[in-house]
Specification:
With 142 residues, the chain is of the alpha/beta class. It is built from four helices and five strands, in the order E-E-H-E-H-E-H-E-H.
């Protein structure tokens, strides 16, 4: 898994939040269910250990990905992740650049709507603006 994915935790000190950053290291996601399960396990572990966190998932360099594998695994993964996300995840940003990846992520969201505020973005600035808006909106409610 580590050869395909970079994982960092950054402090967003201004708002007292941690940002868990998942970034692809290569242009292709392998068609390997075991790697997909390892990634989901790591994702789940990170949001459990960091309640109130934000996730940035960066797919901008991806050019090829296993669509069939993703659709076969998404139901299992969403069943496993959604309850933890509702409890521990503040918001999420998915970075994409290619139209095929954006279309794919949007199609997943149509079948499995996000359970927390989530946005598909192209740039870091767009992602940070979204996160700040979510933080400010929640602050007004409290």
């Amino acid at each position: 898994m580590d050869q395909y994915l970079e994982l960092k935790i950054k402090n967003f000190a201004k708002y007292n939040k941690k940002i868990i950053c998942f970034s692809s290291k290569g242009r292709e996601i392998p068609n390997d269910g075991e790697i997909a399960e390892q990634v989901v396990k790591k994702y789940k572990e990170m949001i459990e250990k960091n309640p109130g966190c934000i996730t940035f998932i960066d797919f901008r360099i991806i050019e090829k990905f296993p669509i069939t594998l993703a659709w076969n695994k998404i139901n299992i993964f969403s069943t496993e992740i959604d309850p933890i996300a509702r409890k521990n995840l503040f918001a999420s940003v998915i970075f994409v650049s290619g139209s095929s990846m954006k279309t794919f992520v949007n199609s997943i969201f149509q079948v499995y709507p996000p359970v927390i505020p989530t946005k598909i973005c192209n740039t870091n600035e767009e992602g940070m603006d979204f996160i700040v808006q979510v933080i400010q909106k929640r602050a007004k409610k409290e």
